[in-house]
Every structure is written in structure tokens, then in C-alpha cells.
């Protein structure tokens, strides 16, 4: 619709404060970030699991997405961004739990204790921030897939949004106490990736390990994972580009830096894999790209392209060591390696933010901010403090929440459910032709093309291996 045609709308629909370009971009960015959860993250994780757990993995991500929207509407947004807040000695700790419909939802965006305003509708901002909240517990799914009781997850995910996500979002997105000290998180390196990563480690510890014979990752469909990966990478343009708050120069800087860091980290990780393992793998490339995306997120619109490039090159080997060296020594069964990529990756990005904020670039978003490399070591110290606070808080609250929920319902799947997977948990499966019934027996349904009747046969694990060998 052309600008000239706007006069056909009632004046209230196009108030003077409204920027049509910024509103259009943030609505688009919101959609991109929502796609990162549904379907991208669901497909990425589902393809990385065993076939028998693919639908359970999807269900956990989708449940988090839907339940977060309800929690966000009822009290999550106001806890995270409401202008009035709980405070101690002038330090703002948390918003007040108020349903969305009791807020000025049809006006201009105004949020946080400083009454920060944006020239976009309030509901646009609410939806954009919801998309961030929704993907965060979804990321945790990767650490507990194939072993966590779905009923326990239904209690954990909404409670986690209230107890972990909302407070940290208030501290670093809305103008809370860490912001008051000078810490910045451009787009969620702390609020999303560090909270998810350290919470994933804590929850994986509380839930326990998978069955001994199933602790190795066995991706059943890397093409499905590749589709999810691609959508997630492209969705990151909205993830980081939207946090400028409008269609600004800073949005363009953030998008460019995001992709540069991802590409640099992906190639660096691939080179490490080839050097150490002698092979280049898709999962390595994907982990590398995600590492770069995570690490650049807290500073995407605050650094210059050369620093984004360096961020990808530095983050990749550190997270690579975290995945292949540190995680195994911790003895924690983090099913899909969420802690190294998001926890360690977020930590690296958070610390580098304190070093690399370029005052020339920050002038487009936070004038006056500069990193230690540009003469302000205080910025590095407050970013390091934020790393410590967010990591410790996320881990401890999640660990305690997991222990508490374990007294209400079992956190871990029973052995029968672990053996059967989707069918035992949900009564349906993505692959109905093969349903695992016993530890070493698979029931196969074969439809006779002649009479349309189903013929069932059972084969032991040894027979299947022999048959597979013959096929090869």
C-alpha cells in the first residue's frame, strides 16, 4: 500500500509517532525468529535424534513455543519489560506480573524502568520479544531429548520462563540492574544463549543419562537437520537485525556482522575437524556456524565487521574444545551438546563484547559505549560480571527447579519408554513401519500388496545387522 492511500484509514490507525518502515521490519523480524523455533529448531533437533524419538523431540519444542505464548501473555512480558518494577536501593530487579490486556496495548512501545520508547506499536514489540522467549526453552530440549519425561517437561518449560528467563531479560534487555551497571546484551547472547546453555547443563545433570547403549548421538536424518539448520541461520537475520528496534543503519550492521561471524566460525570448525578427524562433516559445519551466530549475538550491532570476523575465528576452537574435550570430562549426558554451543559460545561472546565494542559503531545504537580494546576496561569488567551472574543464576535456579519437579513427577523416562520412544510416550510415531517393542527386537509391519493384509514379523538385533551387512 502506498503512503498516499494511508489517508483512507482512521487517524488513530496511523498516528504521528508510528514509523511504517520500522514496524514493517520488526514484524518481519518477528516472523523470522518465530520460524527459528517452528519449524526450524524442531526439525534440526528431530533429525539429530534416533528415529524413535523424533516426534517426542518435536513435541517438546512445540509445547515450549505454545506454552510460552500463554505465559508471556499472562505475566511473562510484564515481568520482563514492565515499566514499574521490584527494586532494591534503586537497582531494578524484576517487572510486575500483569496480563497484557491490562497494559496500554494499542499505543506506542514504552518499556522498562527508564520508559524507553520505540516508534512501533506496543503489540509489535510484545510479539518480537515473545519470539525470543519461546525459542530459549526450546534450545534446552537438545540436552534432555531421548530421556526426559514429557509430563515433567510440561511443568518445567513454563516455570523456567518465569523463574529464569524473565528476570535475566529484565536485567539485560529492559534496563534492569545489570544494564544500570553498564552491561549490554545486544540481542540475547546472555539472555537467550547463556541461560539456555547453563540451564541445559543443570537439567541434564538432574535428569540423568540415557540408556548406556544409546548415549552416543545417532542422527537418523541429516537432511531434516540440514533444513532446520538453514532456516535457523537465515532466521538469525531477524534475531539480531530486529534488535535495533527499527529499520536503521544499525540493523544493517547487525545483519552483516551476524553472517560474517557465522561463516568464519563454520570454516574454522570445518578445518579443525579435518585436521583432527581427517573428515569434513555436516554436523561440524553446522556446529561451527551456530557457534559463530551465538558468539556474535551479544554484540552484533556494536562491533565492526573485522571484529565480527575475529569473533567467529576465536569462538569456534573454544567451543570445539568444549564439545569434544570438556563435556566428556564433565560426565554429563547433554544429548545434543547444547551446553558447549550455547553456554560456552555465549560466554565467549559475552566476554568478547566487553573487549570489542567499537565506539564508531555503537554511536548508531548506544552512543558513548566502547570496549576495553578502545580504552574502557570497565566495560569488560561489567560484561564479565554479567557472564558470571547469568551463568550461575541460570544453573542454580534450573537445578533447583528440576529437583523440585522431580518430587512431583518422574523427570526421567522409564526404561520401557526409552526403548519404545515416541509410540510409548505419545501413542504415535513419525515412522509407523518400525516400532521398537523390546530391547533387542523390532516389529516390522509389511503390507501384502496382493491382499492388502498386514503381515507382522520380528527380527532380532543380530538378524538385522546380518541383513544390513548383506545389503551393503
Describe the secondary structure blueprint for this structure.
Elements: H1 20-48, H2 54-81, E1 85-88, E2 91-95, E3 108-111, E4 116-121, H3 122-144, H4 150-172, H5 177-181, H6 189-207, H7 222-241, H8 249-277, H9 282-296, H10 305-330, H11 338-356, H12 359-362, H13 377-406, H14 415-420, H15 422-426, E5 434-438, E6 441-447, E7 454-460, H16 461-471
Antiparallel strand pairs: 1-2, 3-4, 5-6, 6-7
Helix pairs in contact: 1-2, 1-3, 1-7, 2-3, 2-4, 3-6, 4-6, 4-13, 6-11, 6-13, 7-8, 7-9, 8-9, 8-10, 9-10, 9-11, 10-11, 11-13
Membrane topology: Multi-pass membrane protein
Organism: Metallosphaera tengchongensis
Subcellular location: Cell membrane; Membrane
Quick structural gist:
The strands form three sheets. The chain has a three-stranded antiparallel sheet with strand order 5-6-7. The chain has two domains: 12-406, Ammonium transporter AmtB like domains (Ammonium transporter fold), CATH 1.10.3430; 440-471, no CATH class. It has helices spanning 20-48, 54-81, 122-144, 150-172, 177-181, 189-207, 222-241, 249-277, 282-296, 305-330, 338-356, 359-362, 377-406, 415-420, 422-426, 461-471; strands at 85-88, 91-95, 108-111, 116-121, 434-438, 441-447, 454-460.
What do these coordinates show?
By secondary structure, the chain is mainly alpha-helical. It folds into two domains: 12-406, Ammonium transporter AmtB like domains (Ammonium transporter fold); 440-471, no CATH class. Helices cover 62% and strands 8% of the residues. The protein is built from 16 helices and seven strands. The strands form three sheets. Strands 5-6-7 form a three-stranded antiparallel β-sheet. Strands 1-2 form a two-stranded antiparallel sheet. The chain has a two-stranded antiparallel ribbon with strand order 3-4.
